Amino acid sequence: MTNQNNIGSSFDSFLNDQGILKVCEERAEIEILVDQIKAAMEERNINITQMAELMGTSRAQVNRLLDATAESNINLQTLRKAANAVGRRLSLTLEEPLQESA
């Protein structure tokens, strides 16, 4: 088996060159949160109707929130409501940027 070195730039560099790195990162972060909300709903046996009631919103809004493929504008208030509805707390942190290795 031969040890091959990576050739070319990283995938992040490619996305950055295409001008879509930030959009991809934001979408991935939202999808991770949505997956966590879905898992918490499943753990607590909460269906869409119950979730809407707990969030004080409509079933359609909950469906939009849970549709990871949708191009929706999910805001922090909605994510906080969803987290609270499933007995969780939304936590955000401000972190140092990753340093790319040379």
UniProtKB/TrEMBL annotation:
One Pfam family, short name: HTH_26
SMART domains membership: HTH_XRE
Family annotation (Gene3D superfamilies): lambda repressor-like DNA-binding domains
Segments passing through the bilayer: none
Segments forming domain HTH cro/C1-type: 37-94
Protein name: Helix-turn-helix transcriptional regulator
